[in-house]
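Researcher: I'd like a structural prediction for the single chain below. Treat it as a standalone chain; there are no partners to consider.
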Amino acid sequence: MLHDLGQFGAKSSKRLRHGNEIALAESLVEQLKRSGTELIIIDEFQELVENNQGRKRRDIANQFKYINEKAGISIVLVGMPWIEQIADEPQWSSRIFIRRFIPYFKISEKKELQLFIRVLKGFAIRLPFSDKPRFEDLGIALSLFAISNGCLRKLKNFLDSALTEALISDAVTLNKQCLSSAFKAWRPELDNVFEMNVNKIQGCEVEQYSTFKPDGPQDEDPFIDTQFCKKVPLVQLLKK
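Model: Treating it as a single chain, here is the predicted structure.
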């Protein structure tokens, strides 16, 4: 953070590595105030959990507590669900007033399906076309769900790629043909969901989110991937 604020240059890297932690924290608070920083956002925060255990984790929580108190600046921590292992440290947890977990969409639940459609419409409205795409059409909506499995990041990444292709080809909107072309470039080895009958489009819903268990047996991977249900025609999920 000190480097981002312009205090440390290339010649100061040794000082940064070996500097007294208290002095570094005090210097950071000073620079934050001087620069008029209003918000600190730390992305991929789970890496601090994965690489630091026990006392070190408590030290990290105390450092953030100190920065928050002395600089009077709000801090946003972004990362995988196990960042709560630091967020729940006693010295820090009472200062985290707002917590948000971003779940995958599950179209088998009526409210979630409605929310997914609203999100698709929101993306469509913000695209740079006078003729706005109709992502809410059932065939397109289910195709986008099949691609993303309900994950907002995967959905956004695919639409980013599709938008790039549409703009390069001077398309008037991001229609089904453009989405189909983008899918072919994105996953050419798969059957194109945008060319399927709506009753044939298959996909999965999340069953269990990824976890990190550092206290398990040493010969076991501490990371457990997100688990999904068996792939089924998505129209079946709509009938639940």
